[in-house]
Amino acid sequence: MRFEGLARLGRGVIGALERLGRAHLLLLAILGGTGEVLRRPRLLFDQIYNLGVLSLLIVGVSGLFVGMVLGLQGYYVLQQFGAEESLGIMVAASLVRELGPVVAALLVAGRAGSSLTAEIGLMKATEQLSGLEMMAVDPVRRILAPRFYGGVIAMPLLAAIFSAVGVLGGYFVGVGLLGVDEGAFWSQMQAKVDFQEDILNGVIKSLVFGIAVTWIALFQGYDTVPTSLGVSRSTTRSVVHAALLVLGLDFVLTALMFGD
Amino acid sequence: MGKRHTIEAMVGAFVALGVVALFFLAMKVSNLSMISGEDGYQLTARFSNIGSLKVRAPVTMAGVRIGRVESVSFDKTTYEAVVGMRIDAAVDSIPDDTFANIFTSGLLGEQFIGLEPGGSPEFLRDGDAIANTQSALLLEQMIGQFLFKKAGESG
């Protein structure tokens, strides 16, 4: 009893490392289920529908408003330097490089990741996963793998839609409302936004975020304590961890991609 | 079967929408529509100072972009900057006594290379070097020289 504090710290660290290990084993098992997904593409379509199509509304509307706010705020700063023609660059570059991938990932973590965790967690709590195992069906391959790939495929598409809608929102506010010259808006944007450097890197970012968000959601569901309290805690943790990981990864990726 | 079909149609529409958004970003937002590919030929030029010229900066002639800066390196024996440029293949009639300047677009804008054609009947080919160059005008140096001259006049 003398080293209770130290022992508690040790338990915490060991527990965290065990969870990390289990999460990676789960990821390996999911990747091992790739063949199953390819054999039954319908499972994958269902999940792209659940995670992608149903997230479309919130992602599209958020993109529109983020773009419009960027237009307003960017105009306010830029017109102080007489550079309001550069509004297009500012809106497009910040959306494509950062806001598109990051905000779309945060929205998907909240809208789709939480529901994934709750679904898998409840399946575990109601012993449906054990039931599948009993019927000699591997739940990781049958249930988790299609959800994982569904999320990974949907995320870059959602981020691209977010950015595109955002640019249009910035265009409506900048050109339509505030009177920025339309030609300058598009031509300066095209001159400064690079396809490889900005757009492809944005797609890579959203792909990484897609993997991170779905992986965390699935792991939290699969690893949940099978009670109502456990499922509710896992769902919360899924969103919090996904958001933190997305923001942390974003910093690392930005430093790697645009650091020099 | 009906519901199945609807889901598949929605997924198809979603994927198509995502691809359209990416296409929009590529063609309308970024410079992909303006990249003419890797064709064209290479020229080099040596400057004693390139200011803050960056890779991918435009190379212009008469104000029109005819190429891009491809590489910037330092020659440690002559202490000069070596700038490699890729010129569009269509512009194949640059005289070999052309003058290369480094200009700044606007007071605070980025720097670019401006080519001023000479009168020679010989044209530059792939891999040739532009002999006549003028370094970037550094605002700090100009202000310093101006102040120095003013001080000399009044003193």
TrEMBL record, chain A:
<feature type="transmembrane region" description="Helical">
    <location>
        <begin position="199"/>
        <end position="218"/>
    </location>
</feature>
<dbReference type="InterPro" id="IPR030802">
    <property type="entry name" value="Permease_MalE"/>
</dbReference>
<protein>
    <recommendedName>
        <fullName>Intermembrane phospholipid transport system permease protein MlaE</fullName>
    </recommendedName>
</protein>
<keyword id="KW-0812">Transmembrane</keyword>
<dbReference type="GO" id="GO:0005548">
    <property type="term" value="F:phospholipid transporter activity"/>
</dbReference>
<feature type="transmembrane region" description="Helical">
    <location>
        <begin position="51"/>
        <end position="75"/>
    </location>
</feature>
<keyword id="KW-1133">Transmembrane helix</keyword>
<dbReference type="Pfam" id="PF02405">
    <property type="entry name" value="MlaE"/>
</dbReference>
<feature type="transmembrane region" description="Helical">
    <location>
        <begin position="148"/>
        <end position="179"/>
    </location>
</feature>
<keyword id="KW-0472">Membrane</keyword>
<keyword id="KW-1003">Cell membrane</keyword>
<dbReference type="InterPro" id="IPR053408">
    <property type="entry name" value="MlaE_Permease"/>
</dbReference>
<comment type="function">
    <text>Part of the ABC transporter complex MlaFEDB, which is involved in a phospholipid transport pathway that maintains lipid asymmetry in the outer membrane by retrograde trafficking of phospholipids from the outer membrane to the inner membrane. Probably responsible for the translocation of the substrate across the membrane.</text>
</comment>
<comment type="subunit">
    <text>The complex is composed of two ATP-binding proteins (MlaF), two transmembrane proteins (MlaE), two cytoplasmic solute-binding proteins (MlaB) and six periplasmic solute-binding proteins (MlaD).</text>
</comment>
<comment type="similarity">
    <text>Belongs to the MlaE permease family.</text>
</comment>
<keyword id="KW-0997">Cell inner membrane</keyword>
<keyword id="KW-0813">Transport</keyword>
<dbReference type="InterPro" id="IPR003453">
    <property type="entry name" value="ABC_MlaE_roteobac"/>
</dbReference>
<feature type="transmembrane region" description="Helical">
    <location>
        <begin position="239"/>
        <end position="258"/>
    </location>
</feature>
<dbReference type="GO" id="GO:0043190">
    <property type="term" value="C:ATP-binding cassette (ABC) transporter complex"/>
</dbReference>
TrEMBL record, chain B:
<dbReference type="Pfam" id="PF02470">
    <property type="entry name" value="MlaD"/>
</dbReference>
<feature type="domain" description="Mce/MlaD">
    <location>
        <begin position="39"/>
        <end position="118"/>
    </location>
</feature>
<feature type="transmembrane region" description="Helical">
    <location>
        <begin position="6"/>
        <end position="26"/>
    </location>
</feature>
<dbReference type="GO" id="GO:0005543">
    <property type="term" value="F:phospholipid binding"/>
</dbReference>
<keyword id="KW-0472">Membrane</keyword>
<protein>
    <submittedName>
        <fullName>Putative ABC transporter, periplasmic component YrbD</fullName>
    </submittedName>
</protein>
<keyword id="KW-1133">Transmembrane helix</keyword>
<keyword id="KW-0812">Transmembrane</keyword>
<dbReference type="InterPro" id="IPR052336">
    <property type="entry name" value="MlaD_Phospholipid_Transporter"/>
</dbReference>
<dbReference type="InterPro" id="IPR030970">
    <property type="entry name" value="ABC_MlaD"/>
</dbReference>
<dbReference type="GO" id="GO:0005548">
    <property type="term" value="F:phospholipid transporter activity"/>
</dbReference>
<dbReference type="InterPro" id="IPR003399">
    <property type="entry name" value="Mce/MlaD"/>
</dbReference>
